[in-house]
Amino acid sequence: MKTKDRILRGALELFNQNAATEVTTNGLARELKMSPGNLYFYYKNKEQIVRELFKSLAHETVLVWKPQAKLAKKNEKIELVDFIDKNLELYWKYRFFHRELYTLRKKDPELSKLWRAHLKKLSRIMIILYSNWVRVGYMQPIKSKNEKEFVGELLFVSSNSFMQFLETADRAPNQRTLEKAKRHLMRMLTPYLCGDIKISFEKYIQ
Question: Is the pLDDT of residue 54 over 90?
Answer without folding.
Answer: yes
